[in-house]
């Protein structure tokens, strides 16, 4: 049955993602203008962003086309206002913006430090759009489609290789939040699917009860290095190959060290050469001042952790599954409970036929321990980083964390359950396993219908 999953994923992901590619109004996914700026810099030869003079200050960014702003402006009234619709007049005005060669330096502090790799599909589509003189909006749709197709191809191969881990990976990769990122200008869709591919190389060996081959070690290390370069806390994902024994331990140590060096090296380079402080319009931030506050009040960390989940916990709960648009378009409340139930059910077939001893001995125990450690440590670093750079000094909760940041971490979790001896389920257990598998496989049809209804009502119908 494992062979069915990747092909079902491809079909369902194409239907779901390409609906969003064309139905979400232009620039109506989170930070989409900043992401198109980053992809567009590549078409101007800026594979790595720079510090540029713009608006009377030095900011992280690079060259961009003025036409992007002209295409975005008609829709600027829509984000964060659930009652605002994208009307025909907005589309008519936006479609008049064309690539005419007018270039200026743009500040894009939140996306400028990102590496170019996960923007290549979008940049290629923008280059095509410019070459054939498409309007900016049609180029945006083309770039979304290129990103979606690339994410789906990577996700397909991740599921094809994932062994026992395929079902929970399938569920994570088809969450509405994941699919909406595939259908956007964001790099986050490829961050999720490339993480899943890295885990698939490890899970395949663990499922087959054998050590990693050197090619699998290096393939997973490359995946995690690319992901680790996107956000500094994700650098810890480079440790994941340590979760599975390898034929050549020295090769594995070298691969982990190389991937970690690439991720950390990129972060240091960006900090020294590109990054400028993030500017928050509604409240001043000061990373060094925040650090001094923590050093003077170390016991405040526990209070901050508890208060953060009191303030934002429900948002994380919904954002992880999917709040679309500029995190302003919520799905029906019952859907979130159903989606979490499906995620839970996707892990159950991994437990069938398992021996209790497998949970606390040998390779399965190591995989579980390393996975849990990396997930918890990376999550803590995500909160810590945004407390320093995006939270007002002394505030007792963390601002800026989005539920989508945890999707790559969710893609790690199946590895914790993929090892150990597992006997084929038979009798009622076999029927139950097949029933659970098909329930998980078919649930994205429900997701597709729910998302379509939500998007149409949010953006088009009064």
The best one-word shape is globular
Order of helices and strands: HHEEHHEHHHHHHHHHEEHHHH
Q: Kindly state the percentage of residues in helix.
A: 55-70%
Largest sheet: 3 strands, antiparallel
* Terminus-to-terminus distance: 44 Å
Mean pLDDT: 93
Verbal overview:
The chain has one domain (4-459). 60% of the residues lie in helices and 5% in strands. It has helices at 4-23, 32-43, 66-72, 88-95, 120-131, 136-161, 166-173, 176-182, 188-207, 214-228, 249-273, 287-296, 300-321, 333-347, 362-390, 407-412, 427-459, and strands at residues 50-54, 57-65, 103-107, 323-324, 329-330. α1 (4-23) runs antiparallel to α6 (136-161) and α1 (4-23) packs parallel to α17. The protein is globular. The mean pLDDT is 93.
Features:
17 helices, three-stranded antiparallel sheet, 462 residues, two-stranded antiparallel sheet, mainly alpha, 60% helix, 5 strands
Any chance you could write out the topology, listing elements then pairs?
Elements: H1 4-23, H2 32-43, E1 50-54, E2 57-65, H3 66-72, H4 88-95, E3 103-107, H5 120-131, H6 136-161, H7 166-173, H8 176-182, H9 188-207, H10 214-228, H11 249-273, H12 287-296, H13 300-321, E4 323-324, E5 329-330, H14 333-347, H15 362-390, H16 407-412, H17 427-459
Antiparallel strand pairs: 1-2, 2-3, 4-5
Write a brief caption for the model.
Helices cover 60% and strands 5% of the residues. It has 17 helices and five strands.
């Amino acid at each position: 049955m494992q062979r069915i999953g990747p092909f079902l994923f491809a079909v369902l992901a194409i239907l779901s993602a390409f609906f969003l590619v064309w139905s979400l109004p232009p620039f109506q996914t989170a930070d989409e203008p900043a992401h198109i700026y980053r992809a567009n810099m590549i078409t101007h030869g800026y594979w790595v962003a720079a510090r540029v003079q713009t608006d009377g200050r030095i900011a992280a960014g690079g060259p961009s086309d003025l036409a992007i702003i002209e295409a975005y402006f008609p829709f600027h009234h829509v984000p964060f206002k659930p009652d605002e619709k994208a009307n025909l007049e907005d589309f008519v005005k936006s479609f008049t913006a064309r690539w005419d060669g007018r270039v200026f330096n743009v500040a894009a502090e939140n996306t400028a430090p990102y590496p170019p790799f996960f923007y290549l599909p979008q940049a290629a589509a923008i280059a095509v759009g410019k070459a054939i003189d498409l309007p900016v909006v049609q180029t945006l749709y083309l770039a979304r489609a290129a990103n979606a197709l690339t994410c789906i191809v990577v996700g397909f191969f991740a599921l094809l290789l994932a062994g026992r881990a395929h079902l929970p990976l399938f569920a994570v990769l088809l969450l509405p939040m994941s699919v909406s990122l595939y259908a956007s200008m964001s790099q986050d869709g490829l961050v999720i699917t490339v993480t899943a591919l890295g885990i698939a190389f490890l899970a395949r060996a663990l499922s087959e009860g054998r050590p990693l081959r050197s090619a699998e070690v290096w393939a997973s290390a490359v995946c995690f290095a690319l992901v680790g370069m996107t956000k500094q806390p994700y650098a810890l994902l480079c440790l994941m190959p340590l979760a599975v024994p390898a034929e050549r331990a020295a090769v594995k140590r070298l691969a982990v060290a190389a991937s970690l060096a690439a991720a950390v090296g990129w972060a240091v380079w960006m900090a020294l050469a590109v990054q400028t402080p993030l500017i928050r319009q509604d409240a001043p931030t000061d990373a060094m001042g925040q650090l001094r506050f923590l050093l003077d009040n170390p016991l405040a960390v526990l209070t901050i952790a508890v208060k953060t989940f009191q303030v934002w916990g429900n948002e994380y709960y919904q954002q992880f599954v999917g709040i679309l648009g500029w995190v302003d378009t919520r799905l029906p409340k019952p859907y979130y409970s159903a989606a979490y139930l499906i995620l839970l059910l996707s892990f159950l077939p991994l437990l069938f036929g398992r021996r209790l001893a497998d949970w606390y001995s040998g390779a399965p125990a190591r995989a579980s321990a390393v996975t849990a450690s990396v997930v918890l440590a990376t999550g803590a670093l995500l909160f810590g980083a945004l407390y320093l750079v995006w939270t007002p000094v002394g505030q007792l909760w963390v601002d800026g964390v989005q539920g989508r940041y945890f999707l790559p971490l969710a893609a790690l979790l199946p590895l914790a359950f993929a090892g150990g001896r597992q006997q084929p389920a038979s009798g009622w257990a076999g029927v139950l396993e097949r029933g659970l598998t098909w329930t998980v496989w078919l649930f994205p049809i429900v997701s597709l219908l729910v998302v379509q209804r939500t998007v149409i009502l949010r953006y088009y119908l009064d």
